[in-house]
Specification:
heterotrimer, A alpha+beta (118), B alpha/beta (417), C alpha+beta (476), A: 118 residues, alpha+beta, CPE0013-like fold, 2 domains, four-stranded antiparallel β-sheet, 2 helices, 36% strand, B: 417 residues, alpha/beta, Immunoglobulin-like, seven-stranded mixed β-sheet, five-stranded parallel β-sheet, 28 strands
Chain lengths: 118, 417, 476
């Protein structure tokens, strides 16, 4: 049996929840005040995900373009995603919403521009 | 040779507040308006806030700062709003004369029927903290560092300590880490963080960055570039406790120690400021003490969520439009006072018996508590929550029906269970 | 690192070195000024009270007394000529206890002996009318109407520019290490190679004692004395219209409260003797003392509007007087220039320059260019002047520093001056961009960008101040 402490991010309460795991499966959540906390805790211990946002240089432009993953990606892949973005060579024009890197690191999720560079 | 232009409405600032105010004013029928923006593009500080989390209340989705700004800019363009970038306002006077300069137009004076102040806020710098030590390179406000990294693509340092756990500081802890810097610690003077839990988890804990609560930076070392800082624990009166010093070997110190509404122009216009918010004293139409001059967004009081800035600014835009039509609320006003545990209620003066939104910050952390609004000692509204913290602004709706017959001043206070 | 040769080598680009360089630039001779820092005015000249003292503090008959009074007299015309902000606002030395009244009398007598005009004792009632914010326990004060305030580093920039357009050369990042007398003059080993000079002038501030001892058997001990200050934002209404001193102590003139020429309020300095002449770090104790002592003068003092704090190091000669003159053959010096060093510098430079010209048989140049014209700061212009300024240079329409109202044109001009800004601090002190309440939070990135453009280097090479004070460490 394993236990993990998770701080809930849903509201300013910031409940400190204890999640019990057995063989990788959640067997209990305590310390939460509401249902949303429980759901968050389950997700967070089994398959945590995060949005990644960054900026990427644009050829012949002094200023970089801001980008984001269209959906959250597995938390464990954040550094890989950043490494992939560092390899990226972009050139203008770029439309906000345009895919700048498809299926980043095999996550099935695209990285898109969040700003237009004309 | 004076370049004088008459305008119905002049809006100072083209960030989220100014854009929303302009959109609402135009939608309410103000044809002749101009938004004056000192930067090269509209959008304000959102331009450099490339992280997501904006727009949840307004759009039900999580946008990045540039995306949130782009929606307002697109709407403004659709409405044909006149946004003058690279234009800095130098003064506003009590007669609503707005003097500004730009490369393209030189010095211009706008004589406005109404003015909306939407200049935003600035960060408290090191000098305001009185932190002793050397004055070396490598000490930045979190926002300045954010501008370098996100707008210029330049790194201000490699080994950072962050003083203050405001949201910008937390966000920058993650940004610097993702760009390859090592963030050694986030140091907070208070026993609690003023940042969102979400940011503490996703910006600090995700990257194993320790948060030192009730600690502060007591010394800064390095003659040329920063070489280190000394951090110490503080007692209940926020004085450093000898013997608790921790030395950090770092080349960068980022400060996220508070935001101050930027009211230098307002002061010169004769606008009365509230010591509690450092913003203008306003009535329920967001009109300041100077007739026809309105304020909204972070220049009025520092918000946590841009959604609320937009919402407030829509109201300011509509109110300015009403003022220009000669429909400004008339009659007696009552005061809205900060009661126990409440800091900086906005608005501070209201015309009784109408729909109203009161906003303020709790002075401390209150768990299982209520906000109570009283008039003449009688409770007229109450809002309960599991927790209230100074880091999260409270918005309380007061429908007209609830206080139709009130004559005395209103007091807003916290009530612990 | 190339070896260089010059006729006169001035070590130290502070107010003394630059004032002397300007005087010597009238003569047919090669003058080189070196400094270990990367700009002029980086030592005591940038970090002091900026007071042009009337001259009642120094003992009659001393060099300090004589040069102070002569210097103070020269200030109005000199600052006008150079376009440097200077205001003769007067000063009060306040006695807060009846026991201190004799100190006022003694200062008055001393000042009169030194030739200071219009000194008088002001009693409580009149005093409170003159300065209503003053602590009402004030008993009486000595009034010195000829006391003034100046922007000390702006004076040095102007002196250096004027010297430079008349042929004086400046070499920065160059620390004088060893000085050896040779047949034809001096060989000075520096951190950037050897400089041979016919004659040398030691104006090295806190370092002047060390250099003196290398050529003169006469002992000279310079003690670094650190003073800590607070700078407050310009208030809507200045709390004091004059410089307010407390009664002096053996460590100096004590903590003052004064307006600055730019409308800020200055509190300080403390006085602490230290070992390291470069240790300009402020301390918790020093800042607390600065505030606490200011409260005696100004009970309502608060650091709520503080924009910064800083420390300066005065070069205190152990016997308390200036060391002026020829320390060894063809080795001149102006050492121990603690307060009133700033006030005395113009007079000292005239005297020393004249003596050197005589000793060295220097011939006056046929043409000596007047000081470069100075544009009025945009912040001080009226609407019509601003309109005209933008018409002349559209970059005046681009505001960069909103707190101090500084335009892009002014920042570029600061970099293009004869001895121009090379660093963010250099820009800040020349045109005030970043000097205000946000302390460069908004404008520093733009200033870095403009510096990079003007100097033709990447933004990552721009430094805050001297040495390895890089603003940025690289690209993302």
């Amino acid at each position: 049996m394993k236990e993990r402490i998770i701080t809930c991010i849903n509201c300013p309460m910031g409940c400190r929840m204890t999640v019990t795991l057995e063989d990788g499966k959640v067997t209990g959540v305590t310390g939460n005040t509401c249902k949303r906390g429980e759901k968050y805790a389950m997700q967070e211990v089994t398959a945590p995900v995060r949005m990644v946002t960054a900026v990427v240089p644009v050829a012949d432009r002094r200023l970089p373009v801001s980008v984001k993953t269209r959906e959250p990606i597995p938390k464990a892949r954040i550094q890989d995603c950043m490494a992939a973005l560092r390899q990226l060579h972009l050139s203008a024009p770029i439309e906000a919403g345009q895919v700048v890197l498809a299926d980043v690191c095999g996550t099935g999720i695209d990285v898109i521009a969040t700003r237009t560079v004309s | 040779m004076e370049n004088i232009i008459r305008k119905q409405l002049v809006i100072i600032g083209g960030g989220p507040a100014g854009l929303a105010a302009g959109i609402a004013a135009r939608e309410a029928g103000v044809e002749d308006l101009v938004i004056l923006e000192r930067e090269h593009e509209a959008g304000g500080i959102l331009r450099q806030c490339i992280h997501n989390g904006f727009g949840l209340h307004r759009y039900g989705e999580e946008l990045t700062g540039p995306e949130y700004a782009a929606r307002d800019i697109a709407r403004a363009q659709e409405l044909g709003l006149d946004i003058r970038c690279d234009t800095t306002v130098l003064s506003v006077d009590g007669d609503r004369r707005v003097t500004c300069v730009s490369r393209a137009e030189g010095l211009q004076i706008f004589e406005a029927g109404a003015v909306i102040l939407a200049m935003g806020c600035r960060e408290r710098p090191r000098g305001a903290l009185g932190t002793p030590g050397t004055r070396c390179a490598g000490i930045y406000t979190a926002g300045a560092a954010q501008k370098f990294v996100n707008l210029e693509g330049l790194m201000p340092g490699r080994r950072c300590v962050i003083l203050g756990s405001g949201d910008i500081g937390l966000i920058m802890a993650r940004r610097m880490t993702l760009q390859g810097a090592k963030v050694l610690a986030c140091v907070e003077l208070m026993p609690y963080s003023s940042g969102l839990n979400r940011n503490i988890v996703q910006c600090l804990q995700d990257y194993d960055i320790p948060l030192y609560l009730s600690h502060t930076v007591i010394d800064i070392q390095g003659r040329e570039r920063l070489e280190g800082v000394t951090v110490a624990q503080v007692d209940e009166r926020r004085r450093p406790i000898p013997g608790t010093e921790i030395e950090f070997d770092c080349d960068t110190l980022l400060l996220s120690v508070g935001l101050i509404p930027e009211n230098e122009l307002s002061l010169r216009a004769g606008v009365a400021l509230s010591p509690a918010t450092a913003g203008a004293v306003v009535d329920d139409a967001l009109q300041t003490s100077v007739p026809g001059v309105f304020a909204c967004g972070n220049v009025l009081h520092v918000h946590d969520l841009v959604d609320f800035v937009s919402d407030e600014s829509f109201r300011a835009g509509r109110a300015a439009a009403a003022f220009l039509r000669g429909e400004h609320p008339q009659g007696e006003t009552v005061a809205v006072l900060d009661g126990e545990g409440v800091r900086g209620v906005v608005p501070q003066r209201v015309h009784p018996g109408q729909d109203l939104t009161l906003m303020f910050r709790p002075a401390g952390v209150y768990k299982n508590a209520s906000v109570v609004v009283e008039a003449d000692g009688v409770e007229i509204a109450r809002k309960r929550a599991l927790v209230f913290t100074p880091g999260e602004m409270v918005a309380l709706d007061l429908p007209a029906a609830k206080w139709a017959n009130v004559h005395g001043d209103l007091t807003v206070r916290m009530e612990a269970k | 690192m190339m070896d260089r040769e010059t006729d006169i080598l001035i070590i130290g680009a502070g107010v003394v070195g630059c004032a002397l360089a300007r005087v010597l630039s009238r003569f047919e001779t090669r003058v080189l000024v070196i400094d270990r820092a990367d700009d002029v005015s980086e030592g005591a000249s940038k970090a002091n009270s900026g007071i042009v003292h009337a001259g009642f503090d120094a003992k009659p008959g001393t060099d300090k007394a004589r040069l102070n009074v002569l210097g103070a007299r020269r200030y109005p015309a000199l600052c006008k000529e150079l376009g440097v902000p200077y205001k003769q606002i007067g000063a009060l030395v306040v006695a807060f206890r009846e026991e201190d009244r004799p100190v006022l009398e003694q200062l008055k007598a001393q000042g009169e002996a030194n030739g200071v005009p219009r000194l008088r004792i002001v009693e409580h009632d009149e005093l409170m009318q003159m300065e209503p914010q003053l602590n009402p326990s004030a008993v009486a004060a000595l009034e010195a109407p000829t006391s003034g305030i100046v922007s000390p580093y702006e004076l040095v920039f102007a002196l250096a520019d004027h010297a430079a357009i008349n042929g004086v050369e400046f070499q920065f990042g160059t620390e004088a290490q060893t000085i050896v007398r040779e047949d034809t003059g001096y060989r000075v080993e520096t951190s950037r190679g050897v400089i041979r000079a016919h004659s040398v002038v030691n104006c090295a501030g806190v370092d002047s004692g060390r250099l003196h001892s290398q050529v003169s058997p006469r002992p000279c001990r310079i003690i670094p004395r650190r003073g800590e200050y607070y700078v407050l934002d310009h208030p809507a209404e200045a709390p004091f219209s004059r410089t307010i001193f407390q009664c002096p102590t053996k460590m100096g003139k004590g903590v003052l409260v004064s307006p600055t020429v730019h409308g800020n309020v200055l509190l300080g300095p403390t006085a602490m003797d230290i070992e390291d002449g470069l240790d300009t770090a402020t301390t918790a104790g020093g800042l607390a003392e600065c505030l606490q002592k200011s409260a005696l003068t100004w009970p309502k003092v608060s650091t709520r509007t503080a924009v910064t704090n800083f420390a300066g190091i005065r070069a205190h000669e152990e016997h308390g007087d200036f060391l002026v003159g020829e320390a060894a053959p063809l080795f001149y010096e102006a050492a121990g220039f603690e307060s009133p060093g700033l006030t005395s510098a113009p007079a000292l430079a005239e005297e020393l320059g004249r003596d050197m010209a005589e000793d060295l048989n220097l011939r006056q140049k046929e043409t000596w260019l007047p000081a470069p014209e100075h544009e009025k700061p945009f912040n001080e212009m009226n609407d019509a002047e601003r309109t005209e300024a933008i018409a002349g240079n559209p970059l005046h329409g681009q505001l960069i520093c909103r707190c101090e109202v500084v335009t892009e044109a002014e920042i570029r001009a600061a970099i293009r001056r004869p001895v121009g800004a090379r660093t963010v601090d250099g820009v800040k002190r020349r045109c005030r961009a970043g000097m205000g309440r946000c302390q460069g939070g908004f404008c520093a990135p733009r200033v870095v960008e403009i510096l990079a453009e003007e100097l033709g280097v990447p933004m990552t090479e721009i430094r805050k101040g001297s040495g390895a004070s890089d603003m940025l460490v690289g690209e993302i």
